[in-house]
Amino acid sequence: MTNSTEARFIPIQRSLYPVIVTLFVAVFLISNITATKGVALGPLITDGAFFLFPLAYVLGDVLAECYGFKASRRAIFTGFAVTLLAVASFYIAIALPAADFYENQEEFSLVLGLVPQIVLASLAGYLVGQLLNSYVLVALKRRTGERRLWARLLGSTVVGEFGDTLLFCLIAAPVIGITTWGDGLNYLIVGFAWKTALEVLLLPITYAVIGWIKRRENY
Asked: By residue range, what is the domain housing residue 170?
């Protein structure tokens, strides 16, 4: 019989899933802040999250390929909830009265006072894009089994990234300074092409990570 005064704890399962979910959520949260800056690289129009956000799709691919759609969906909804919490916290912190010695209230508000339209665009694009990415990858895996991982990774990314980029561009473009159809189309094409190209470049790393996780998790 167990002694009722004995300290007891829930054992932590030895899985990499929580670590990957943490990275996945962190990438999305950071990208939401950096994406508020419009960026011009010569004739190319993009945003400040262009170098980081594609990693969310790499991690999304890893989650879907290794753990399945339900586990991937759980991670996506976790990222969605954490971002909502962050946005609410930003607004509350901005609204709180500044101390007499604090001189950066305006700058604080400018950086963290995310425009509601940007938040809506980011959350809508993320939710639709990631769910499409995971669904397509798992659906393809049911057809191909363990073969043609490259096709699953690229096919799911093309569908997910396009849905994500299209929604974000349509909703957020006016807020980040894109006011013409030409600039909007430029932003859409550049964002979609860049994210897809980066997925291709990272394919060997994605392969290695997925293989390592499957061995580590006794797949």
From this structure: 16-217
Those residues whose C-beta lies under 8 Å from the C-beta of residue 198, and which sit 6 or more positions away, are 54
Q: Is 169 part of any domain?
A: yes
Number of separate domains in the chain: 1
> Is 26 inside any structural domain?
yes
CA distance 9 to 72: 27
| DSSP string computed for the chain | ---TTS---PPPP--SHHHHHHHHHHHHHHHHHHTTSEEEETTEEEETTTTTTHHHHHHHHHHHHHH-HHHHHHHHHHHHHHHHHHHHHHHHHHHSPPPTT---HHHHHHHH---HHHHHHHHHHHHHHHHHHHHHHHHHHHHHTTS-HHHHHHHHHHHHHHHHHHHHHHHHTTTTT--SHHHHHHHHHHHHHHHHHHHHHTHHHHHHHHHHHHHHTT-
Nearest to 49 by CA among 38, 28, 34, 36: 34
- Identify whether 4 is part of a domain: no
Task: State residue 145 phi and psi, 5-degree precision.
Answer: 65, -135
Query: Do the domain assignments include residue 10?
Result: no
What predicted TM-score, i.e. pTM, was given to this entire model? 0.81
Residue 53 has pLDDT above 80, yes or no: no
Q: What is the pLDDT of residue 115?
A: 65
Residue 19 CA to residue 67 CA, distance in Å, equals: 13
Closest by CA to 207, choosing from 149, 144, 143, is 149
